Amino acid sequence: MIHRTDPARQAPWQVELAAAIRDPEALVRVLGLPDTLLAAAHRAHEHFPVRVPPAYLARIRPGDPEDPLLRQVLPLDLEEAPQPGFSRDPVGDLAAQVVPGVLHKYEGRVLLTATGACAIHCRYCFRRHFPYAKAHAARDHWAQATAHLATDPSIREVILSGGDPLTLHDDKLAGLMGALHALPHIKRLRLHTRVPVVIPSRVDDGLLGWLDEAPLAVAMVLHINHPREVDDAVVRACERLRAARVTLLNQAVLLAGVNDDAEVLAALSERVFEAGILPYYLHMLDRVEGAAHFAVDAARALGLLEILRARLPGYLVPRLVREETGAPAKVPVVAVGAGPGCR
Ligand SMILES: *Cc1c(COP(=O)(O)O)cnc(C)c1O
Ligand code: SF4
């Protein structure tokens, strides 16, 4: 295995990761956006910093403040408006940690926050306030996390989430795979990641090498919100993942101004299928402070789903769900008027 701590031997994906735009002014300038956005972008960036990798940046339409890809990454003054009903830990993650970095909320599957780092910073993210520095599961070479997994034979599946697990080096990930394989009750590894979408070069021989040899079944749940996020490089990366026997699914978040439109959602399902990915979840926004301007109410969400059901084959219609603190699984959004998503 190549050790990539030497900067001269960094893999292309690591160079791209390091080359992400982290300055709101640079983002505004490089995309030719109006100066009037600058002051607010700087302020909101203080709360949750800008991060946009080059491959994602290249898909944003220059000069268009309303571009749906841009809206996911550009800090706006709307983030600082008062947001009643929106909190810093809307899904109860802090309470669900059994050991640092291990969230055991649902039966049979455990979610590891593998790292605090992401390749991109999505403004709507419910983890924007999460104290990762103390809480990620890889910090002690997975020791506490795997010790917990060993004590509970009901756990069948381990989900690596984040931050984004594919910002970790392959030797670290392969190391976890080895540790999991030693636990006979663990059958599946799942990766929740946006990296193959925003840095497709991450899907390289190093990653495919350990995935292809994985002794567990591997599912990868990608996170794609808009059909324009899937360019040819993403399609090729997905083809390689499938050749390594990885099952590909997509979860999207329903976001005002990004994908709250039946045409866009239908195009998203069709586009991800072209890349060999099946739609899995369409999440209602988690009610995290700073993201209120992305909220879509339940009535509209259900209306959009109704159109998708009429227009698409059933396997291209995602499950519309929300996360509720204390619920035994993601909660289907079923009826207008049910639950806190209605406003
Ligand atoms: C979303 C989530 C899961 C996975 O749920 P699935 O319905 O299996 O996709 C598992 N654990 C936690 C803590 C989660 O938030
Ligand atoms: S955890 Fe996912 S949604 Fe949140 S900032 Fe990272 S990549 Fe974006």
UniProtKB/TrEMBL annotation:
Name this polypeptide is given: L-lysine 2,3-aminomutase
InterPro entries: Aldolase_TIM, EpmB, Lys_aminomutase/Glu_NH3_mut, rSAM, rSAM_sf
Sorted UniProt keywords: 4Fe-4S, Iron, Iron-sulfur, Isomerase, Metal-binding, Pyridoxal phosphate, S-adenosyl-L-methionine
Annotated source species: Acidiferrobacter thiooxydans
Cofactor(s) needed for function: [4Fe-4S] cluster; pyridoxal 5'-phosphate
Family statement: Belongs to the radical SAM superfamily. KamA family.
The keyword Metal-binding appears for this protein: yes
Highest taxon of source: Bacteria
Gene (name only): epmB
Modified residues (N6-(pyridoxal phosphate)lysine): 330
UniProt-annotated binding residues for [4Fe-4S] cluster: 118, 122, 125
